[in-house]
Each structure stands twice: as C-alpha cells, then as structure tokens.
Amino acid sequence: MSVRIADVVKKIPRSGIRDFFEIVQSMRDVISLGIGEPDFATPWHIREAAIYSLERGRTGYSSNLGLPRFRCAIAAYIKENFKVTYEPLTEVLVSVGVSEAIDIALRALLNPGDEVLYHEPCYVSYSPSILLAGGVARPISTRWEDDFVLKAADVESAIGPRTRALLLNFPTNPSGAIMPAEELGRLAAICVKHDLVVLTDEIYSELTYDGQPHVSIAAQPGMKERTVLLHGLSKAFAMTGWRIGFACGPVEIIEAMMKIHQYSILCAPRMGQEAGIEALERGKAAVAGMKREYEMRRNVIVRSLNDMGLKCFKPRGAFYVFPKVSDTGLSGHDFSMRLLHEHKVAVVPGNAFGTYCGDHVRCSYATGLDQIKIAMERMAEFVGSL
Ligand code: PLP
C-alpha cells in the first residue's frame, strides 16, 4: 500500500527543538538548558486537590467548555490579574494546554489564504499551526537592539488585504521580551484601525521581573471584543503534564472554537481541571516563590553570559535568555552543536525560533542553580577557546 500524507503536513518541518533533544538524549552527563519546562513539581496543595477529586470519584467528562466551577475561577483570576471581565459560562473555554487553544482559535478564524502576522523569534508552534489551519504565516522580525519589542509601525506596514489576525506572545519565548505600555497602546490602535483579530498567548504572564506588572493587550481600549486571550497552567504553576489551558474571548469566537474542540477533544482532562481550580484560587504564594527563584537564576545567567562576552538582552519575563553568539564566529547552530559535543551543555539553536534568529541560542533557566552555574563555567571555557 502506498501511504499518502497530506501536502500541508509534508510542508511543515519537525520541531527543531525535538530533533536537537533526540541527540541530547543519546548522550551521557549533559547539562540541559534546553527544556522549556519548570524544574519544580506542581505545588503539593494543587496535587492534593487532584488526589482528593479522584478519591471522590470525579473521573468523568466535564462539559465541552470545561467545568463551570473552573471557568468561574478562570474568569475571576483573569479579572484580578489582567483587568478584563469575561462571562464565565459563554466567554471561556478550557483547552488541552495553550497548544490546543492556539490550534482551534486559528482553525475557527481562518479561511484558506488568510494571513496571520506574528513576531519572530517566537514559539515553535506558531507557523505550523497557521499553515495547518489553512492560513499564511507572515513573520515580523524583532531585534535584540530593540529589546525584541514588536514595533507597531512594523505591524502596520506588514498589513495587507488578506491579513486577518495578529498572534502575540509577551512575555516571549524565547527572548523574554515584554511590550512597553505605550507601544502596546499603539499596537492596539492599529488592530482597531485595520480590524484585526488578536490572539494573545500570555502563558508567561505571571513571570515578569524587576517589579514590572504584566499588561494584556485584551485590556486596551477597543480590544476585548477583537481579542482571544490564551493562558494556561503549564508554566507559572509548574503543571506542564496536566495539559490545561484556556481561551477567553468574544462569545462567537469561543462558540466556534468549542465546535472544533467538541469533535476533536471532547473536553480537557477532568483531573487537570479539578487541580486548576485549586491552582487559580490558592496558588499565588507558590507561584511567587517559583518566580523569585527564576528571577535570581536569570540574574546569574545574564551576568555570566555578559562576563564571557556574549551580547545578551536581559529578559524581562518567561524563563529563557537568548544571547547572540555570532561574535564568536559561529552560527547559533554550530555553537550549540560544538557546545554539546565538546562541553556537554545543551542549548537550543536560535533558528528553531525563526528564520532571522540563526545568530542566537536559547538557554532556559528552568533548571536548578547548581546546574546553571556548572553550565556557565563550561560555556565560558568554550567561548574562551574560540
Ligand atoms: N505558548 C508558548 C509561548 C510556549 O512557550 C509554550 C510551551 O513551551 C506553549 C504555548 C505550550 O503550552 P501548553 O503546555 O499550555 O500547551
């Protein structure tokens, strides 16, 4: 039998991160700064809430949109932290991580050939998800000289007759950038002027540093009605394996997303939703503790990179640094390969995050400080030898 794979699937590459980590896993004694996943276990009181729900036999499906109590907790959390009010029963959908929410939001909104703008460097799933939804991916480059801020003027000049949506992620994976309030305001005004829908992936919103508050584009004037706010428990609550995300947005968009979700997923995992209620209602102190640790690690890693002569934007959020390594004479790819094979430290080549990002590598500081310190010593030795 000859197996035929759909053209659109043939067109999309495998994730560069996964390919790289298959090599890492085949090696011994490697320190990995590659994984975008908290090294903390989910806080105990959240795990306990899930165990308690299992003891009570709460093991069935929830409604397609998610447990009503969880949706109420989500709406309350978003109101308190993002300053946007959503109707819990009609404007909130619980998804299988932010990953699913991105996919179904794009599929709900795009007709074949519609264009989606997004900023690079960016999370690896954006371009493939747009293509799989029948859209056309239009990256806009952001630069380390501008602190990886997305310039509203660059967005406006990229808008064409087929532009339908703008996909944002602040704080950004992999750069750690956030949007200054004035630029965010300018960007919102452009979205209103050109009638764009905004999908904003704010999965790292709790992890902003130097006392900076997180500001959501959904809270800007005229934006709530054209924005789908995507968030989840994976990062700040250290709950990657529970697979819980959520989308908040206008009723018609949430209803359209729900149709795809109900036929493909049915509902998000029940246990994760039960745990999510506890996380959002009582998880603040645990999140604050992990954030303090990330901020301390960030300071150590940025200082070390600067000391070894690598240009590095000091990230304002998330848990990644994205130094430029081209001054060593190596591309991000060659730097990562040699660092891995010669010094047993894994970082991710920048080109995994966008076509313009080959001069960089991504290092995650969701790894213990002891490991980070050893990795920095090994990296300094490597850079010194070049
Ligand atoms: N969005 C961004 C920006 C991410 O960095 C990640 C994971 O690394 C995801 C979404 C996926 O999140 P989830 O675990 O909620 O699917």
Annotated CATH homologous superfamily of the largest domain: Type I PLP-dependent aspartate aminotransferase-like (Major domain)
Q: Report the strand count.
A: 12
Alpha-beta content class: alpha/beta
Alpha carbon gyration radius: 21 Å
CATH class of the largest domain: Alpha Beta
Major beta sheet summary: 7 strands, mixed
**CATH topology heading of the largest domain:** Aspartate Aminotransferase, domain 2
Domains, number = 2
Average pLDDT across residues? Answer: 96
Second CATH tier, the architecture of the largest domain? 3-Layer(aba) Sandwich
Number of helical regions: 13
Bound molecules: pyridoxal-5'-phosphate
Unreliable spans are: none
Give the topology string: H per helix, E per strand.
HHEHHEHEHEHEHEEEHHHEHEEEH
Portion of residues in beta strands equals 5-15%
What percent of residues adopt helix (DSSP H or I)?
40-55%
Give the structure's gist in a few sentences.
The chain is of the alpha/beta class. The protein has helices spanning 7-11, 16-25, 44-55, 68-82, 97-109, 126-132, 152-158, 181-193, 251-264, 270-282, 284-307, 332-343, 369-385, and strands at residues 31-32, 92-95, 115-120, 136-141, 163-168, 197-201, 227-232, 245-248, 320-321, 345-346, 348-349, 361-364. It folds into 2 domains: 2-42 and 285-385, Aspartate Aminotransferase, domain 1, CATH 3.90.1150.10; 44-282, Aspartate Aminotransferase, domain 2, CATH 3.40.640.10.
